[in-house]
Task: inverse folding
């Protein structure tokens, strides 16, 4: 199965909502960071890709029609070249709000995991720290200007590289219409998914911390 949609937007740009939205539109399944836990061998494959080694993308995505969020978004260029008929979906949001969200959710979770007593949790956090924070942001998440600069550079890079007829710059919160028009599918009756807000994430994170005690 070839990818029809390659997501280039970074995490915390509504990517989990986008995953569920795409699946409602028939692009089932849509790959997301959650899948790294569901496919135990994928973390090693993503690590190999990060090191610049050849990866069998067709084997990795054999069950999927779309991919959003990390880790796939860091390989949007490779994936869009490997799947030349795919469309590129760049999810974006206000950079200041994005930075606040990412610092208060997935980066916080990673930082907490690095000190976890559970070996598996700590190992997952170490991998995420290397794959996302060190590689993308030079492990400088406290430097807001630097992190936002990386975010804005990614947005500009994608816009410059992908032809406009193949690219949708999707503003978080835009709902069904621009997405359905771009993908040439009907607008569904279901409301657009809205999941994994900062509040929901932090509630889950708090429960996880309490479970450690």
Result:
């Amino acid at each position: 199965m070839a990818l029809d949609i390659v997501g280039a937007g970074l995490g915390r740009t509504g990517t989990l909502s986008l995953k569920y939205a795409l699946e409602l539109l028939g692009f089932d399944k849509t790959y997301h960071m959650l899948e790294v836990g569901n496919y135990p061998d994928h973390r090693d494959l993503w690590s190999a890709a990060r090191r610049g080694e050849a990866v069998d993308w067709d084997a990795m995505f054999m069950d999927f029609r779309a991919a959003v969020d990390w880790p796939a978004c860091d390989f949007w260029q490779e994936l869009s070249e490997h799947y030349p008929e795919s469309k590129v979906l760049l999810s974006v949001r206000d950079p200041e709000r994005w930075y606040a969200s990412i610092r208060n959710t997935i980066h916080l979770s990673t930082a907490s995991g690095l000190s976890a007593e559970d070996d598996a949790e700590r190992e997952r956090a170490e991998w995420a720290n290397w794959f996302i924070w060190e590689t993308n942001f030079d492990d400088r998440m406290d430097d807001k200007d630097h992190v936002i600069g990386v975010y804005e550079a990614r947005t500009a890079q994608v816009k410059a590289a992908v032809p406009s007829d193949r690219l949708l710059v999707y503003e978080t919160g835009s709902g069904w219409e621009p997405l359905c028009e771009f993908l040439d599918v009907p607008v569904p009756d279901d409301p657009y998914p809205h999941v994994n807000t900062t509040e929901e994430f932090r509630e889950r994170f708090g429960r996880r911390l309490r479970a450690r005690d």
In short: Residues 170 and 178 are 8 Å apart (CA to CA). The radius of gyration is 17 Å. The mean pLDDT is 93. The domain at 5-212 is CATH 3.40.50.300 (Rossmann fold).
